[in-house]
Every structure is written in structure tokens, then in C-alpha cells.
Hints:
- There is one protein chain.
- This protein is 39% helix and 18% strand.
- It is α+β, with helices and mostly antiparallel strands.
- The protein has 2 domains: 8-68, Arc Repressor Mutant, subunit A (Orthogonal Bundle), CATH 1.10.10; 76-258, no CATH class.
Amino acid sequence: MEKFQLDWNDFTNTLLSHWQFSFTVNELKEEFRLSDAAVNQGLYRLLRKKKIKKIREGFYAVLPPSCRQFGELPMYSYIHHLMQSLGKPYYVGLLTAASLHGAAHQAPAAEYVFAQYPAPRSIVNRQMPLYFISKKELIAEGIAQKKGEAGYFNVSSPELTAFDLLDQIRRFGLDHITTVLQELHEAMKISALKKMAACNTISANIQRLGYILENFTEGQHLTGCLEKILAKRATFPVPLSPLKANRGKIDKKWRIIVNTEIAPDL
């Protein structure tokens, strides 16, 4: 039995007036003590009026009037609330994070979020897919916070973003990653890069990052800390592209087998 009558239009307007752009069905039930039938009926009406959008089962975004024509809300407006509701540590990463740090030459065609393993199922739609990628351990030192309309959300630092991109060569390709690094390096700091490199167990990506920064960006001042970390490790020649045969000239400084030519877009 319902204890309260809920004005659904007033409900969404109140959320928007408080800069809240999302809610869960459980929160709705707890606050207003509604039956399942009343909730389903109310949600159906709001969906038809394009006042809300279903993000995943039990979680909805509230659409301001400016967003209703296309039925889409920026991910930053609800991602923190979504991940809290799932009980998942997370951070916005890869091309999404790079664009937030100023590497916006090529706007991402999808959003990327890292979540503690196992990651939630990705949300794939025609407008802006949201891909969740699992990570067994999230490095707290590499996670910063950005302020959005709905409050703060977690995002990888420029330095962690660089290493995450190199972990995803198969997804993005070296040309695209190098293009991003040509802008992203401007936001990188030596002290933070040193910390992220020290935490990175994949020496090959430190080698690749050093090679790209030195040869394709104006971030040569960043490479010294990478050299020092590699000097303390047992390294061996690795291919610049893990997708091609290990044949090519060897860059002796970074111990990189130059098995492909990089052609960045900038």
C-alpha cells in the first residue's frame, strides 16, 4: 500500500533544482514507500515524456529540458552516483580522461571507465557507448577528481592515462595514442610520472612511453625519470607495436624494436 502520493513531475524538477541528475529505483522506493506497480507506472510516464533515461536496470538519469530532444545526458553527470550504487571503485579513463586533461584534438566516440574487477557490463547505444574495463587494482595516487555539474567524479591523472592508453594499443592503435600524447604530455608532471612508472610492472610500456615522448612530442624533459626507473630493472628489447613481427632497427636508449612507423595526426 502506498503511504505517499508522489507528483512525478515535481520529483524530477526537484532533483534538477538541486543539481541531481540521477536516481535509483531503490532510493525512490525507500524515500516514498511506493509499490512496485506505482514505481513502474511513474517511470513509464517519465520515460514517455523524455524526462528520464534508463542507464541500466534500476538506475535512471534525469534529463534537463536542454537534453530531452536527443535523450542524452553527459556521463559526468551521473557516473559517480552510478558507481556508488554498484559499490564499485572506479575512474574515468583513456580517451575520455585525456580529453578532460586537454587532449581534445579528436573527440572520443565512446566513454571509458575503469572499475575494480569484475567491471559492470558496458552500456552500448547508438549515441555514446560507455565501456567499462576491469582492473584488479586501482592506483589511488593516479586518480584525481574533476568537478562536474552534479559534483565531483574520479578521473585518471594525465600520467596514469598515458600508461592506460599504452595498455590498450590493440584497441586504439599507436598512431592515435601518439596523437593523444602529443597534447596530453603538456599536462604531465615529472614527479607524478615517476610515481606512476614506479607502480607500473610492465616495463615495456615505460619503454614505449619514453620512446614516444622523446621522438614525437615536446616532452623530452619528462623522459629522465623513466630512464632512471628502467635502469633499475632488467629490460630487454620489445617491439614498438605488439601487433607486428619483432623485426626492425633497435633504439638502444629505450631498447625498442622499431617494427612500425608512427604517423600521428597532429
